[in-house]
Amino acid sequence: MLELALYGTLLRFVQALALAAPTILVSLFVTGVLRRLVGQQQTKRIFGGSGWQSLLQSWIIGMLLPGCSLGVIPISRELRRAGLTGGAVLAFALSQPLFDPLSLLYGLTLSKPIVVFTFALCSLVLVMVVGSLWDYFYPDSETREPISPAVQAGWPRMASVLLVVFRESAGASMIYMLIGILGSAILAGMLPHGALQRAMNGGNPWAPWTMTWVAVPAYSTPTLAMSQLGSMFQHANSAGASLQLLTLGAGLNLGLVAWIFVQYGWKKASAWFAMLIVAGLGMAYAIDGPMHPYDVDPSDHTHAFDIYCNPYHLGETNLTILTLARLRETLSPFALAPIVALLGITLVGLLLWRIDPHEKIEAWLERREVSRPATKYDIIIPAPIVGMTILVGIFALSIVGCYAYYPAPKEVFAEMQMVRADAISSANVGDVAKTSHYIGVWDAWTRRLEVGVFLRHFQLSRYQHVKAKILREKLELLRHEVEDGHAEGTKQMVREVHRAYDRMRDSFARELENHPTAAPDAQPVAAPRS
C-alpha cells in the first residue's frame, strides 16, 4: 500500500510539473516586467488602485493573461509590493488561473457557450463579493514598500528584468509553487484509484461539498479544468461540483493558500478562506439544479477526475516499469523543454543568491550612468510604455498560440492516426490503463480538431460536430467494455469506433475541400459546442 502511494505521488508530481512549467516561465517573466519596466506606481494604476474598480480590473486582467494557480504566485507577490489592497491581489490570484484564450476556446467544444459564460460570471461575482467584504473588514491590508529606482534604458533595463526572473525562480515564489505541486501529488497518492468516479454524480447533494475539499489541494490548469468541466456536463454530473472544480480546482492550490496565510496572517487569511468557501458553496448549490443538463442521459461514473487519484490499482505489480513507461509518455520533447528551461533558470537563480545575496548587481545597474552622450538617433522609450507593450504582446502571443495548440486538420489527423493505433491495440488485449489513457488523448484530439477548424474557417458545420461527437460517444463505450472485461463487446465496439472515425474523417475532408463555403447540407454554427 505504501509503495503504491509513493509511486503514485511521484508520477503525479512529474505530471503536474510538466503541466505547470510553461505558465510558470511566463509568470516569472511577467513579474520581472511589472517590477522593472511597468513600475509600482503604474502597476497600481493599471489594476485600479483601490475600491471596487480594482477588483473588477484585477478580474479582467487576470482573464486576459495566460497562467495557472502556480504561476500566479510570483505575480501576486509583485502586486502586493506595488501596494494593491488585499482584496484586489486575491481577486487577481483567484481569477487569473480560471480562463485564458486557450481554455476558453477549448471550453466551447465541451459544453454549451452559456455554461462557460455563466461560470465566468460566477467567478466575477465570487471575487467581487469576497474581495469587497475582505477589504471592508480589513482595510489596512495593503503594504508600502520603497519604489525601486529606475534603471538606464537599454541592456541594463532588460538585464534587471532577467535578474528578477532568476531571483524569483530560486526564491520564495518557487518554494510556494513546489508546495502546490507536492500537495497535489500527495493528494493523488492518498486517494485510491477511481475513488472519485461516482462522487460527482448528478443528484448527489454532497457532490459540491466533496469537490470543494478535493479541488483546494488539487492542481489543475485552466485547459484541464475545462476538459473536466465538459466531461461532467456530458455525463450529467453535478453542475455545482463543476463550478467548484473551476473556481477552486483551477483557482487554488496549497502553495497559493500557504502564501496567503504567510502574507496576511492566519486571522485575515482564515476569514478570506471561510468567505470564499461559503460564497462558493452557496453559488454551487444555487446553480446545481438550473444548470443541470437534463437533456443528457446520466452516466453512473466518469473518468474525468482520475488524474486527482492514484494512477495505479490496488494489487498492481511491476510499479517501477509502469512508472518509467508513464514518465516517458509524460516527458515528451515538447513537455520536457519547459521543464529544462525552468530548471536552468532556477540553477542560475541559486547561483545568483549565493554570490550576490544583497543584490549588489541590481544596485550597480540602478546607479549606472550613460557612458556616452546621446545622439539624435537615440530614442528613449519610457519603461512603463515598454512594459505595457510587452504585456500586450504576451496576450497577443497567447492568441497566436491558439493556432499552434489547435493545429490544422491535416496535422490533427496525423496525430490521431497514431493514437488510434495505440488505443485499439490496447483495447484488443484488454489493457485497461493504456486503453483509458489513449482514449482520453484521442478524445482531446477530436476537440482540438473542432477548434482548429473553427479558428481557420470561422465556422464549424453541424454535420462535422455531430460526427465528432458520435466518435467520442463510441470511444466512451469502448472504454466501458474494456473495463468490464467483455471480450466480445470490446470487439464489437472496436468495429463501431473504426466506422465512426472513418465517417468523421470523411466529413471533415469533404467539407474542407469546399472551403470557404461549407457543404450544402451542413448548417454552420456560431461556435463549436456539445
UniProtKB/TrEMBL annotation:
Protein localization: Cell membrane
Into which family does the record put it? Belongs to the UPF0718 family.
Task: Give the organism, scientific name.
Answer: Pirellula staleyi (strain ATCC 27377 / DSM 6068 / ICPB 4128)
The entry's cellular-component GO terms read: plasma membrane
Q: Sorted alphabetically, which Pfam families does this protein's record hold?
A: ArsP_1
Membrane-spanning ranges? 12-34, 55-76, 82-102, 114-134, 170-191, 203-221, 241-262, 269-287, 334-356, 377-406
This protein's membrane topology, according to the annotation, is: Multi-pass membrane protein
Asked if the Swiss-Prot or TrEMBL record annotates the protein with the keyword Ribonucleoprotein, the reply is no
Cited InterPro entries: DUF318, UPF0718
- What name does this protein carry? Permease
User: Which keywords annotate this record?
Assistant: Cell membrane, Membrane, Transmembrane, Transmembrane helix
